[in-house]
Amino acid sequence: MMKPKRTDELTEREKEILSPYVSDVDAKVFAIRNLNPEIIGAALARYSRAPTGLKETLAREFLNPDGSPNEVKGTELIDRVVNKFGDESVAELAVAPLCIEDTSNLMTKIIEDCRIGGSPIEESTRYVLYDEKKNGEWRYVRPKSIMESGLGEKFVETMEFLFATYASLVEPMQELFRKRLPAEQFSIEVERQGNIEKACLGDLQDDGERRAHRFAYGFTMRSAACDVIRCILPACTKANMGLVGNGRFYTGLISKLKTQGLDEGHVLAQAIQKALNTQIPTFIKRAARNEYPAENHSNKRKLCAELFQDVPIEKSPEVALLDDRRDTGQAELLAGMVFPHVQHSTAQIRQVIGALSLEKRNELFSVFIGKRQSKRDRPGRALEAGYPIQFDIIAGFAEYRDLQRHRMLTQQRQDLGVALGYSIPDEIREIGQETIVQECFERSEHLHGALKHAGLVEEAQYATLFNHFIRWNMGMNLRELGHFTELRTQKAGHPKYRRTAQLMAKLYLKRYPQMQPVLKFVDYNDYDQSITRAEQEARTARKSLAAGVFDDMD
Questions:
Q1: What is the pTM of this model?
Q2: Range of the domain at 452
């Protein structure tokens, strides 16, 4: 192996062996390719200490004389820098794509709550139907702890009823939307002689346009139906998801899944680690269960249950803009510590904490901090208190799934449960299926109660449905509020989460009307009774025609 030279001049031989691995051997800006993430991460890590550029470093330190990658050298460097010296920033230099299939919707939220360093995408219940069995089974997770608890039969019986009911609603719901918007009235955009025009079924000129119309109309009807009938999908519904993340993100994710309380997460952590060991094994070498947050979570849940066991949950608005209480110091901080472990609002939690003795407050703070053994034992997100804008929100789990993905803010959610109630869409009543959907919620709540009574408190979340209400808290600055509300009120968004974002904007501007220019493009229109994806699919059809590629999403 050649010793690094103090020169940036590549020899012709070095250029030759580099050419398969960089996009342009002579450029100052270039892409790296055809190398495993361990070598890429190690080579990038050398930027901080090597006297030469990456191409020279790569050719002289990480490629063998014959031009083949020296994978041992890359692994040794990363192991030394990340795992022995603890330079965690280097763990962000290796990125790996990962696919996770047939995990529960509850687990996708736990995964996606790891905000920094990973980019997730998941199967959407707004576009995908769950009306067919796969390998003879409906698509829901059967947690081992539930199946072995004596409630396994009841769990399966409830889920079979829910999914069979869901499947029975698909065609009646699509027919309702076909009546609202018949195919003959559905138009798509087409480009003719350089002009973009709207064309209905009778105006289409060739097979390509008719095909685009058929796919766009079918997808619009299906997604409109999905938006409504997902109300009775349970949190244990399976989903596929993709992740692109760096080594630091994956280390945190695996450690979190090994530490949290659901068996599904423990199994998933092992599977993720096994898969990533084929790509970035050295970068995730330190991933392990952490007893500090595990013990801390248990202690916090126990203390909060004691403090609030006799406190009834007061009725609260679906969106509440909280008072700016940053000047109260520990009181606001303690409220954030309690919030994820109860079902009460922040305002009510603050009232309870305000009545506590100083001794009890100190106990709460001490339990939250826990027994830290090192700098890696980090307390929870309540310490991120102090945002200038903070909301408590109550909405369906379905809407939470869509709104949770924002990461330039702090969110804390409470457990999925049944205490806050649920909603049944008006369209369910229109097709005459309110009674059976009501039974779905009743069966779900009975199962939820049985699981909690059996001590399966966290597992009881699997039994809740997408339209059961959940409470979560969002803290943000003004820039993020503008981004959030302008994005989430667009016409194509789900009516329920559009309403949530609209209320957030209205409440804030009522308090600070001078900030209206920041929220200038919030859409306050009510599109209830319209099919909100129709316009978007009309545009998609034109793009399909232009590309000659048609995708019916089946």
A1: 0.88
A2: 301-519
